[in-house]
Specification:
- Helices cover 78% and strands 0% of the residues.
- It is mainly α.
- The chain is globular and about 65 Å long.
- The model has no long low-confidence stretch (mean pLDDT 84).
């Protein structure tokens, strides 16, 4: 009887592992195909051999500038920002056991945005200063949320409520800055706030790339511990998890990569919110969905950018398209949580 039960458990785990590998592989293939489309498509469609030649340093008439200077940095920004948004959103939603607890809702991206808009409108600072201020703003917002929500013990509900309050306050600050800003500065601020890959340059992407390459593996390595945190404080502790240290490392790593992503592309709407639930629905239970969530984030950003560039007469920033996709899902989620009594 015991052997039969063990066999059933092993068969079930094998099926879940196979599903995880298949789904993750398919997501990776889709992301790679979208990367290729980003490099090939534009006012001029370049063949694969020209794109490969440019990527390997060959001088190809026309393609060297279009692909090497414009499309390649845009694609790289979409890949790393999308992965950062997807992973960070999944970490917060899982750790706080609430699909609404993503960096967009609890004020982290609003902290980065308000700092960036202040630099653009009030200080009229350079892009480098705006990026640095955006990162500092995101980190400072997390610290304030943590200090204000700190009590005798960690409380998910308290942190979310404080975060939502901070988000509302920072949104008001951004609205005030836009109201008092000079007319010629407002379009720049609005473009940044909408979330866009326009104007991406290779030399400005290195901080984001380095940060993701350092901290994303840390989050992936803690993926199983993250899943155990979702069981609750007592359950995770009884399984030998140092919950405070695990949560601290996950928060710092997630905030750093999403702050750099926001500083690079602006707050691309709903990517952090959508990636985790989509990845979890596709992968199922039993394995950490950190990597699938990052891949879904890449797919959402690149696909939305292609739609914004080519599906309409006018060209729209990627954040506008992700907002159109994400808003109905947010309404659906609120209705579903209300029916279940979670609100």
């Amino acid at each position: 009887m015991i052997n039969e039960s063990m066999n059933l458990i092993m068969v079930g785990r094998s099926k879940r592992r196979r599903r995880f590998i298949i789904v993750t592989s398919i997501l990776a293939v889709i992301a790679f195909a979208l990367c290729c489309a980003m490099l090939m498509l534009g006012n001029t469609i370049y063949p694969v051999q020209d794109v490969i030649g440019v990527l390997f340093g060959e001088e190809v008439k026309g393609a060297s500038f279009a692909v090497g200077t414009i499309r390649y940095p845009r694609m790289v920004a979409g890949v790393f920002a999308g992965f950062a948004f997807g992973v960070s959103g999944y970490v917060f939603q899982t750790m706080l056991r609430n699909p609404l607890a993503n960096p967009n809702v609890i004020g982290i991206t609003a902290g980065s945005s308000s700092a960036a808009v202040f630099c653009i409108i009030i200080l009229q600072a350079s892009n480098t200063v705006v990026s640095i201020a955006s990162v500092i703003g995101g980190l400072a917002t997390v610290l304030v949320i943590f200090l204000l929500s700190k009590g005798s013990s960690f409380s998910i509900g308290r942190l979310i409520l404080v975060g939502i309050g901070i988000q509302a306050m920072l949104d008001a600050v951004i609205a005030y800055l836009l109201m008092i800003g000079q007319e010629h500065d407002i379009p720049t601020a609005m473009r940044w706030l909408s979330g866009s890959l326009n104007g991406s340059k290779t030399e400005t992407l290195y901080p984001l790339i380095i940060t993701v390459l350092i901290f994303a593996p840390v989050i992936i390595a803690l993926g199983q511990r993250l899943e155990l945190l979702e069981l609750g404080e007592q359950a995770a502790t009884s399984l030998g998890i140092n919950t405070d240290m695990t949560r601290l490392v996950l928060i710092i790593s997630s905030v750093l990569i999403i702050a750099l992503a926001t500083a690079t592309t602006g707050p691309i709407a709903f990517v952090a919110f959508l990636s985790g639930p989509i990845a979890r629905r596709l992968v199922g239970v039993g394995f950490s969905s950190v990597i699938p969530a990052g891949l879904v984030g890449i797919i959402l950003v690149l696909a939305s950018d292609l739609v914004g560039q080519f599906a309409f007469v006018a060209r729209y920033p990627v954040g506008v398209i992700t907002g159109i996709i994400g808003a109905p899902y947010l309404i659906y989620l609120l209705f579903r949580m209300n029916r279940k009594g979670d609100l």
